[in-house]
Amino acid sequence: MRIDIALIIIDMQVGVFDGSIVPSVFRADNLLANVVQLIEKARKSSIPIIFVQHKGDSGHPLEYQSRGWHIHPELSILDEDLVVEKQTPDSFFNTDLQDNLVSKNINRLVIAGIQTEFCIDTTCRRAFSMGYEVTLVEDAHSTWDTDQLTASQIINHHNSSLSEWFVTLEKVNEINLH
């Protein structure tokens, strides 16, 4: 059976990079460069790219229709790319993501973006439970320090725990989008 792939880029929006409301996400420049590289690989292989865009409430760094809400311009969205808007950490909940994946016969998801312990974790687990083969790009998701853990610790923990059941981990330079 042929596996059809989609690249899912979650919450890579201006408000998590510009530092105006919250500090820039951990290793922001590295994250952007890695996601741009993933997008280039997907485009070369004609893999569908789906941008998931969080619609934040008033005052949120990703407040709907604010400057911070827009997808980061370095990601260069094209007309053929799909944008799915969400309001929770689950990219499938009350969105048309599933319908779009089914219509394209997608059964493998490559996931990258923000925020490791919320939207990335939740979407990876949900996708696995829905029967998708999920690849998490281990060096293309990020978060912020908390009072308990550094961003690096959070990322490493989620890479480890998610890979036990829910995802296959691959680095940007290892990803095969064919």
Description:
The protein is α/β, with parallel strands linked by helices. The protein has four helices and six strands, in the order βαββαβαβαβ. β5, α4 (151-163) and β6 form a beta-alpha-beta unit. α3 runs parallel beside α4.
Outline the fold blueprint.
Elements: E1 5-10, H1 28-44, E2 49-54, E3 82-86, H2 97-103, E4 108-114, H3 116-129, E5 133-142, H4 151-163, E6 168-170
Parallel strand pairs: 1-2, 1-4, 2-3, 4-5, 5-6
Helix pairs in contact: 3-4
User: How helix-rich are the residues, as a percent range?
Assistant: 25-40%
Which oligomeric state applies? Answer: single chain
Provide the CATH topology: Rossmann fold
Strand sequence of the main sheet, in spatial order?
3-2-1-4-5-6
Tally of distinct domains: 1
* Spatial extent as radius of gyration: 15 Å
Q: Structural class given helices, strands, pairing? A: alpha/beta
| CATH architecture annotation | 3-Layer(aba) Sandwich
Q: Rough shape?
A: globular
* The CATH fourth-level homologous superfamily: Isochorismatase-like
Main β-sheet, in a few words? 6 strands, parallel
- Termini separation: 14 Å
Give the C-level CATH assignment: Alpha Beta
Count of helical stretches:
4
Uncertain parts: none
Number of strands: 6
Q: What is the residue-averaged pLDDT? A: 96
Question: Secondary-structure element order, as H and E?
Answer: EHEEHEHEHE
Taken as a percent bin, the fraction of beta residues is 15-25%
